[in-house]
Amino acid sequence: MTPDLEVVAFSAKARENLASAQSELASDRFNACANRCYYACFQAAIVALVRASIGSGTSDRSWKHAYVQAQFTGQLINRRKVFSASLSAVLPRLMELRLRADYQTQMISQTQVRRAIRDAETFITTVMP
Question: What dihedral angle (degrees, nearest 10) is formed by the CA atoms of 71, 74, 75, 78?
Fold first, then answer.
């Protein structure tokens, strides 16, 4: 897949997941909302990395979660100063929320996902103008 196709594909996925998160919130499905917020930002981060000519780091061009988070923060925030440091905590915070929503018995609250939606909207509009 060419970089241009990756940008198109992951941009569409990020926007779709954000719309899904908003729909899940409106339907009081807070755990699903948390999951979709994380994936929307994860895919938006991939778009930013591809646009900065940073590849996936794997031979099969798959994107690993730890790698995307490390490269986004390390390269695009700390080294190149493309994005504000305020974005550095978004992916880890949303991943933690997603992991609780997906793998623990604790239910995610409306308050938690309202913040997650705000974070996701800010992240996506900033990294995918």
Answer: 160
Average pLDDT of the residues in 35-58? 97
- What does CATH list as the number for 3-127? 1.20.120.330
CA of residue 2 relative to chain centroid, distance: 21
User: Radius of gyration of the chain from Cα atoms?
Assistant: 14
pTM reported for the whole predicted model = 0.97
* 52 touches 80 (CB < 8 A): yes
Residue pair 83/126 in contact (Cβ under 8 Å)? The answer is: yes
The pLDDT tens digits for 54-109 are 999 898 889 999 999 999 999 999 999 999 999 999 999 999 999 999 999 999 99
- Please answer whether residues 40 and 14 qualify as being in contact, where contact means their C-beta atoms are separated by less than 8 angstroms: yes
